[in-house]
Automatic annotation (TrEMBL):
Name of the molecule in the record: Aldo-keto reductase family 1 member B1-like
Signal peptide range: none
Organism (species): Vespula squamosa
Gene3D superfamilies, per database record: NADP-dependent oxidoreductase domain (3.20.20.100)
Binding-site residues for substrate, renumbered to this chain: 114
Pfam families linked: Aldo_ket_red
Keywords in alphabetical order: NADP, Oxidoreductase
Domain NADP-dependent oxidoreductase: 19-293
Domain of life: Eukaryota
Molecular function in Gene Ontology: oxidoreductase activity
Positions of the record's site feature: Lowers pKa of active site Tyr: 81
């Protein structure tokens, strides 16, 4: 099946499908089928990460769909991310090679520094001090980035980018890099619209990729009384106006802002529903209305890592 997913052009001339499948929290026992379903439905962009603990199962799905002749490797855009414990420059290439081996791929389309924050190197992905706080490493993301440029030059990935970087961190990176990041993958939805960081990145010709676009209702730290974006009455009303579901309005909101968007689902009907967003556009007034829901409602705050010198959320954007 073919979906009419537009491509977004990076400053380097390469392109990324504007819509893809997220895989955080997709359990090893369900993610293979979800990725297979998504590819059958027409998804061509899959967002992965070593820390999600399911790249082998994602790789199985990709291998099967290529073997079945549904897609070729070139049809797919696969992203992965360097976890915080691998920021020392000599760890970057081995970390990427581990991801490539898990995903059954010879190259990635995009490799991101997952967070500017570095954790103590070692086998534990979440190393802790005796008081339970995260154990940080002194690795500077500028040095990590130089190693990212190295794996790009070796052809192990077609593009490199960042995730969860604030404007000051991007400015510092731009002053110290040879290759500019193609994207900054950040949390973005109506309760955290990221207007300033989005405008800042646009000005630098860095594409925004919006994560948790549906409000991440399955995030492990969700509390029963937390506001539920997908149940927001204002979005339900907008959905009626466009004859679309709240999820489809939330995803279209990102597309109409020029962002790339990567909703996660392991449910076939929702994987299909989320892709049925290429036959309408939100009117500018409705985009402005949705913008007005902003309440600085960050749902991925990286709580506990505030002590890192590279914690990204200590400044307004
Ligand atoms: N760079 C980073 O630091 C981060 C990156 N990400 C990336 O972004 C992706 C998306 O963000 P994520 O936090 O997972 O959350 P999302 O906002 O995509 O929400 C996912 C949740 O919404 C449910 N859902 C999906 N579609 C629908 C629908 N149509 N109607 C109702 N419920 C629906 C899913 O349920 P079900 O699966 O049961 O169908 C799941 O519980 C991640 O999976 C990951 O790839 C996310 C967070 C941080
Ligand atoms: C989900 C994710 O990518 C985090 C928490 O880093």
């Amino acid at each position: 099946m073919v979906l009419n997913v537009p491509n977004v052009k990076f400053y380097n001339g390469n392109t990324i499908p504007q819509f893809g499948l997220g895989t955080w929290k997709s359990k090893p026992g369900e993610v293979t089928q979800a990725v297979k379903d998504a590819i059958d439905i027409g998804y061509r962009h899959i967002d992965c990460a070593h820390v999600y603990g399911n790249e082998k199962e994602v790789g199985e799905a990709i291998k099967t769909k290529i073997a079945e002749g549904v897609v070729t490797r070139k049809d797919l855009f696969v992203t992965s991310k360097l976890w915080n414990t691998f920021h020392q420059p000599d760890l970057v290439e081995p970390a990427l090679k581990k991801t490539l081996s898990d995903l059954n791929l010879e190259y990635l389309d995009l490799y991101l520094i997952h967070w500017p924050i570095a954790y103590k190197e070692g086998d534990d992905l979440f190393p802790k001090n005796s008081d339970g706080s995260p154990e940080f490493s002194n690795a500077d993301y500028i040095d990590t980035w130089k190693a990212m440029e190295g794996v790009l030059n070796k052809g192990l990935t077609k593009n490199i980018g960042v995730s969860n970087f604030n404007s000051e961190q991007i400015n510092r990176l731009l002053k110290n890099c040879t290759v500019k990041p193609v994207t900054n993958q950040i949390e973005c939805h109506p309760y955290l619209t990221q207007k300033k960081l989005s405008a800042f990145c646009k000005e630098k010709d860095i594409v925004i990729t919006a994560y948790s676009p549906l409000g991440s209702p399955d995030r492990p730290w969700a509390k029963p009384d937390d506001p539920k974006l997908l149940e927001d009455m204002k979005l339900l009303e907008l959905g009626k106006k466009y004859n679309k579901t709240p999820a489809q309005i939330l995803l279209r909101y990102q597309l109409d802002r020029g962002h790339v968007v990567i909703p996660k689902s392991v449910t076939k009907s929702r994987i299909a529903e989320n892709s049925n967003i290429f036959d309408f556009q939100l009117k500018p007034d409705d985009i402005a209305y949705i913008d007005s829901f902003d309440c600085n409602g960050r749902i991925c705050p990286m709580t506990g890592s505030e002590g890192s010198p590279y914690f990204p959320f200590a400044i307004p954007f």
